[in-house]
Write a structure and sequence with these properties.
alpha+beta, Phosphorylase Kinase, domain 1, Transferase(Phosphotransferase), domain 1, five-stranded antiparallel sheet, globular
Length: 231
């Protein structure tokens, strides 16, 4: 595979990733017919080499490259866990990771695909594993958890060496326990999810109970608006 990585290195040299302010996703400049973009985050974009689809190449923005070795260190600590991707190589601008198939929990909500409770338990177990490796599992949200054959795979471990608890997973788990049964198997509009995310980011310090009450009101308003448009 080393030879293939050198080929990918040449292909990735034709692509540049730049970060944006206000925690917005990166911008990709350039392209290659042999690379397929499979994910975009706030620090990097992830590509797949079409001739070796079992690998993923996480290409960082220039001003975020300091995070490459930090994230690689986390993956070294997590290498025995089935709940996280594998890291095969560290390059100057990117990481070589295992490609992980599956839909994010975010996509599951949009498509109305049921999220089994087993996924919630898997993420809890993944977090315990990380803590046992002296890591701090954080920044776990709908777009950072994949559904794989009824089980969970946690992606993006870039913040696991940071301090503090952002409570994202605790809030998601509580929302799942108390409210998911209301929407299970139903398609949630992407615009509604984006509004919820924006609202959460602005007031996540408030209690989850107050936040979820606002979301239920918002969903009721959204449904009424859709009904009016359909008439």
């Amino acid at each position: 595979m080393e030879k293939d990585w050198l080929i990918v290195d040449e292909l990735l040299s034709e692509i540049k990733v730049t970060s944006n302010s206000k925690n917005k996703p990166v911008t990709i400049h350039g392209s290659s017919k042999e690379l397929r973009c499979i994910g975009v985050g706030t620090d990097a974009a992830v590509f797949q080499y079409i001739h070796k689809p079992t690998y993923a190449f996480k290409l960082y923005a220039d001003d975020k490259k300091r995070k490459i070795h930090t994230e690689a260190q986390v993956y070294r600590e997590l290498k025995e866990s089935p709940f996280f991707p594998k890291c095969y190589a560290v390059r100057d601008r990117y990481l070589v990771l295992s490609f992980e198939p599956g839909l994010t929990l975010y996509d599951c909500l949009i498509q109305g695909i049921p999220i089994p409770y087993r996924v919630i338990k898997d993420v809890d177990e993944a977090r315990r594993f990380a803590r046992n490796r002296n890591l701090n599992p954080r920044d776990i949200h709908l777009k950072n958890v994949l559904l794989q054959n009824g089980r969970a795979k946690v992606i993006d471990v870039s913040e696991y060496l940071q301090h503090g608890n952002d409570f994202r997973w605790e809030h998601l788990k509580k929302a799942y326990d108390k409210y998911y049964k209301i929407i299970e198997g139903k398609s949630v509009p992407s615009g509604l999810l984006e509004t919820i995310q924006k609202s959460y980011n602005q007031r996540h310090h408030n209690s989850i109970e107050e936040f979820m009450k606002d979301i239920i009101k918002l969903k009721m308003f959204w449904n009424k608006d859709l009904t009016k448009k359909a008439l």
